[in-house]
Structure formats: C-alpha cells, structure tokens
Amino acid sequence: MTAPAFANFSKLARGELGVPQRHTILPDTTSPGVSITQLFKYQSYYDDALLQNAILIQSQNEPIVGSTLQKSNVAGYCFGLHPSSQCPIAVQPTVGGQGASPQAVILRPGQIYRPHGKPGEGSGNFSGLNWGIPFGWLGGGVATLYVFPSPDADAAWPGNAEVLFHRQRMQIVGLPLPANAPKNWPLRFPWTQAARGPLPISQAGAAIISVSEPTRIEMSLRLPSLGAPANMRFIFQGTNDLDLDSLGNVILTPNRFVDYIWGTYAANGGVGNLSVNFPVKELTGEVPRLAADDGGVQLFDLDAGATGITGAFVDVARYGKI
Hints:
Elements: H1 5-13, E1 34-40, E2 70-72, E3 78-81, E4 89-95, E5 98-99, E6 105-107, E7 112-113, E8 128-132, E9 141-148, E10 162-173, E11 188-189, E12 195-196, E13 201-202, E14 209-210, E15 213-221, E16 230-237, E17 256-262, E18 280-283, H2 286-289, E19 296-301, E20 313-321
Parallel strand pairs: 10-19
Antiparallel strand pairs: 1-9, 2-8, 3-7, 3-9, 4-5, 4-6, 4-8, 10-20, 11-14, 12-13, 15-18, 15-20, 16-17, 16-19
C-alpha cells in the first residue's frame, strides 16, 4: 500500500529523500538546441560618390539595428552564435514578452551566453529574444543563433571565425595631395567618425566592438586594363598604433606609408555581362594590421599620372577576427 503523501514530508525532513527539483512553467523538451538562421545586409557598401560614407542609416538610440531586428518566441536558458556566422549579433532576451535586459548582449561567432540566474541557485530562463546587427557594425552576412532550451544544455565550439567588417570604395589621387586623409579606416565599432551621405548623418558612437586580429584585405582596381606597372601608395594618417600621443590625441603629421605595385593586364573586350573585368588582389602584412579610427588612408599615384591610375577607384573589403 502506498504511504500517505504527508509521510514523504517526514522523510524529506530526515534527509531520506533527495532534494526536490524545481521546474519552470516552460514545458520540458528533449531538444539539445534550436537554431535560427538569418541573412543580414552588409551595413557598408560601394558607391563612387559616397566613398567612405556609403553606409546604411542606423538609429543611434537602438542597440539593435532596426532594419535587421528579428523577434523570436523560442524559449530557453542560454544562447550562442555558431562559429560559422559571418558577423557579431546583439541579443535582448525577453520574459513574458517584455524586455528582460535593457542593454543588448553582443556575441561574436563561437560565443555562448547564459543571461539570467541568481548566485547559488539554478539558471533562469527567458521566453523569447530579439536579435540582429549591433549598432555601429558595418559588416553583415549569415548568422546562426542557437537557443538552448534546457538548463544543462551546452556546446563546445572551436576557433575564431574571420568576418568581413568594412567595405568601401576609395579614389586614387595625384599631386597636389589633399591636406588630410579622409576618415575611412576604422577598427572599432561604433566608429567615432561614421557619417552617412554627402550631407553627413551621424552614425558615430562609443566603441563597444573591436576587431582584435585584422587578417587581410581584398582590393579591386576599377580599370579595365593597365598597360604598365603602376605604383600606388597607402598613406596612413593618425593610426591607432603609431600616431596617438600620451593624452590619446591624434598626431596628424608626420604620416606613414606602404607602397603597392599593380601589375599589367589587358582588357578582355567582348559584350554582355563579362565585357568588363577588374583585377582582385589580396593584401596581408602592414596594411590590414594598421587602423585609424580617428584618422584615415589616402591612396596616392606615385607615377604622377603616367600609368593612368590617378582618379581611378579601388574597391576594398577588410577582414578580421573579433
């Protein structure tokens, strides 16, 4: 015969029963994780007129870029950004449809975060979440968010993914050189100099994300042919590493430079979509490693126009690890 229910209370008091387990109002699930994948637009793009100002408009009072905001009702205890993701994301957990965290949590690819709980007690749960591109980020791409619906769920993800964090179109200039380089070479986001459009709309903010390991640059010279090798100089003004004084002020002179030679190539001709082709070169070394959040880079034709690259444009895509 089954003992009366009140007998269990006596056994519990004497330590004859195990510690009771607390359960949330959420239904139990056997799923180890729920994945949500979204393709986000790049927040920087190429444009002959806007150049370094070719970035999408972001509202400064929103921790998650409004045009990228995703709302999910997937409940759980923690969440993580899969290392295959191409950008960081900002996440705001919700409880009962209401925001539980006033400040968004920013995840880099491969990072896992458990947002709620009390010291000495079990983890807390959330009923859903809002997520998207964090304010100030100029990249984009595919992001896969995993939500772990049980308190003991976890994952071990290796590596630190390389991401595309900035795209811009730059113009090669000749003599006389302008007085200052354009503000166009950030490594920390939101970018202190970010402004969108010819009549600048400020996109600036205090930096909260840093590209800790710049890796490479893909650049493409927008000329259909080049009859002779062309010498191009990257002139750096106000670099983070070499040109800040003891107070953190930017030193605008002297400048730093790195030289690059474009090799010759012939036009392919023809008609249709393949009629014009531009070369693509990968840069590693000094140029990708340097940054100038409050300075910039000017491309200069060292051949004084003899090879025809003065006035030409170069499309630049910058990559790194967060």
